[in-house]
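Go through this pair.

…
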Amino acid sequence: MGLLKPEDFTAKWIGVIQSEVTEWPKPRYLRREFTIDRAIRRATVYATALGLYELRLNGQRVGDHQLAPEWTDYYSRVQVQTYDVTPLLRRGANAIGAALGNGWYCGGWQYWEKNIRAMYGSEPSLLVQLEIEFADGQRQTLVTDDSWRGMADGPLRFTGIYEGVTGDAQFFMRTAVYNMDVSAFFNKWLVDVCQDAQMPDGHIADRAPHCGGDWLATGGGVADDVMGAAV
């Protein structure tokens, strides 16, 4: 059973303020380190975004959704994905990170006009809640809040649902940024996150078929026709 109502979330919407002016928001990278000091029984993460997201734990991709959380009417609802991440966590130091793209939230829409334009918002944001149950019965919840750090200057320079992806290959080779747990790299450039996005009044849990793949690495993929069912 997922977190079905806004009040079930203690997580906050977070994003990164972009320092330079560009036609479209640049992809964002967000991360946080945390420590686990006991045996884990079960771990579940709930994730969504205003925009597109790709989530990683200790350098491993979480799920195989393509263009998650997929299209929705952001004026009324946001789809949430639920993942079992028990095998991805470890005792000791851990790191969780995400990359954000514009998607349907703040990317360009065609509208059958000459120029594409954004419909819902101007900046992508992330919402993540990680629920950990330990073998001794204790629980720990890790959420997106102002303890996370982020940046808007990574190897992906642009992502668009019509235009595809533009990346800096030298940046990819130089940083191995997708590991999301390379503290030496991230801590050099990370800035404080902001908490200025508001959750829409409606909320649905995602039950949609989805396309697998890696949009960060390939820039490909097509969203599924069936986007989700209200719960």
User: Anything to note?
Assistant: The CA atoms of residues 74 and 89 lie 32 Å apart. The mean pLDDT is 75. The first strand starts at residue 28 and ends at 36.
